[in-house]
Amino acid sequence: MKILPQSIRGRLLLAALVFTTAALLFASLSIGQVLDRFVRRGLNERLDAQIALLVRSVRPDGAIDRAMLEEIGPFTQHDRGWGWRIDSPGGTLNSQTIVPPEPPGPPDGPPAPERERRMRERRERPRSEGLPGHYMRSYTRATSGGPVTITVAAPRAVVDRMRRAAVAPLLWSLGALGAFLLAATLLQLRIGLRPLARLKASLGDVRAGRQARVPDDQPAELREVVAELNGLLDENEAALARARGHVANLAHSLKTPLATLNLRLGEAGRDPDGTLGDLVAQIDRGIRHHLGRARAASPGAPGQPQVPLASAVAGLVTALGRIHMERGIAAEVTIDPALTAKCDPQDLDEMLGNLLDNAWKWACARITVSAEAAGPQVRLTIDDDGPGLDAPAIEQALVPGLRLDERGDGHGFGLPIARELAELHGGGLTLGRSPLGGLRVVLVLAG
Questions:
Q1: 349 assigned to some structural domain
Q2: Count of domains for the chain
Q3: Nearest 5°: phi and psi at 374?
Q4: Strand, coil or helix: what is 417?
Q5: Which H or E run includes 380?
Q6: Could you tell me if 442 and 380 are in contact, meaning their C-beta atoms sit under 8 angstroms apart?
Q7: Of 10, 116, 124, 442, which is most buried by a Cβ count within 10 Å?
Q8: Are residues 254 and 339 in the same domain?
Q9: Residue 2 falls within a domain, yes or no?
Q10: Exposed e or buried b for every residue in 331-352, given b needs 16+ CB within 10 A?
Q11: Distance CA 74, CA 88 (A)
């Protein structure tokens, strides 16, 4: 069982929580010690101030000036456990034995026995020196009659109460700091991991063919990774190019002789029972199948790029117009510049080259080329005003090696190759009657 999360975000968040919690605990303990010393120091200063007052009542011979003590009186919080005690050679005095003089009462004030009772109650109160849980401060003064020790006391609960009063805001502050650090950590993770999300999107664009390589403008930590990815894409593209070259060589070396053999077998008397023709057709299908798989995909190759149709068609129309200049064919191209096809550029040039060259050969005076988006696909239409083809001739025109007119050059592979390439790229090729009177060729490709 793995303790750490599987994601980088989860691991960083867990580490931040652990370290932040440890830091806050350490800070609370450290600051708590500082606050405790601060509270004790304040209490010591208060008790020391009381000692300084009581020292004034000690005479040089060690005797205690009771009149001075009555003037000083007990602590204002005397009833809450605060008190003092003086140990001198002449005896011990404490704050319970020194009471302020009774204010003079009215003529009909309480009788003497009542005053005596009050005095007795005050003298019988618990003495601070006998109470456990008190915070004590002492001072000894040397006199000619002997040492005099002054002790002042405060309830231990006062220290705890003052500590709690100081610690409570500290805990609230640390809690708010912890919440702020957590929010800052989440924001930091969001900002820090954003380049990984952009890298993922760039790889998706490469796979979909929207861009050829991963952009190099990456953070320093990802530049080496991006360089390795682009190097891998370059190697795969080179391997694909070599494979395509071998496929082209194999296609030229096998298809033409095989088509010629098929035509010869079609002559009278060469294949009476059709067995040899079936074998040739079987070989042709096997070659088409395996060549198609080799051309359609290469292991590790990047996705097919998005090729602008307008520029691809414009370049071929310009080239073919110069080649067939003597025929004076007018070509009209109507394609949105933003329209693209997901196709290999070489395959697209080969398909369009075959189809446009065929239109130029058979057109009388005019050719139109248009394209439109059809859902996830792109439909490119080529019309000419030539003689066109009827339904039986359309079926025969897509048969490899079968030429409908022996007067021109070529071997009859242009339309079949275009259809094969279109099907390998997820599209298709259809022939029909053009509104111009000639042939209409509709090439469908993935958009």
A1: yes
A2: 3
A3: -130, 80
A4: helix
A5: strand 377-384
A6: yes
A7: 442
A8: no
A9: no
A10: beeebeeebbbbbbeebbebbb
A11: 18
CATH number of the domain encompassing residue 320: 3.30.565.10
pLDDT in tens, 375-428: 888 999 999 999 888 888 887 777 654 444 444 444 345 677 788 888 877 788
Same domain, 288 and 311: no
Contact 136, 105 (CB under 8 A): no
Residue 14 tokens read as 């867990």
Q: Could you give the CA distance from residue 400 to residue 414 in angstroms, rounded to a whole number? A: 8
Question: What does the DSSP 8-state code read for residue 64?
Answer: B
pTM: 0.42
388 dihedral zone (left: phi>0; alpha: psi -120 to 50; beta) = left
Residue where one domain finishes, among candidates 274, 296, 318: 296
**Shortest CA distance to 370 belongs to which of 319, 321, 317?**
317
Q: Examine residue 172 and state whether it is found in any structural domain, yes or no.
A: no
User: Is the same domain home to 113 and 152?
Assistant: yes
Q: What is the DSSP letter of 58?
A: B
Domain membership of residue 245 as a residue range: 220-296
**Nearest Cα to Cα of residue 82 among 125, 124, 116:** 125
- Is the Cβ–Cβ distance between 411 and 401 less than 8 Å? yes
Q: Are residues 273 and 315 in the same domain?
A: no
Q: Which of residues 128, 147, 162 is at a domain's end?
A: 162
Amino acid at 181: L
The three-state secondary structure class of 65 is: coil
Q: How far apart, in whole angstroms, are the C-alpha atoms of residue 188 and residue 208?
A: 31
Q: What is the mean pLDDT of the chain?
A: 78
Q: Which distant-in-sequence residues (6+ apart) come within 8 Å of 264 by Cβ?
A: 270
Residues 256 and 392 in one domain: no
φ/ψ (deg, to 5) at 158? -65, -40
Question: Within this chain, do residues 95 and 35 fall inside the same structural domain, yes or no?
Answer: yes
Number of H helices, E strands in the chain: 11, 11
CA 372, CA 381: separation in Å to the nearest integer?
Answer: 9
Q: Are 318 and 291 within one domain?
A: no
pLDDT (tens digit per residue) in 309-343: 999 999 999 989 888 888 888 999 999 999 998 88
434 inside domain: yes
The tens digit of pLDDT for each residue in 179-233 reads 888 888 888 888 888 888 888 888 888 877 778 788 888 888 888 888 888 888 8
Claim to verify: residue 44 and residue 158 sit in the same structural domain: yes
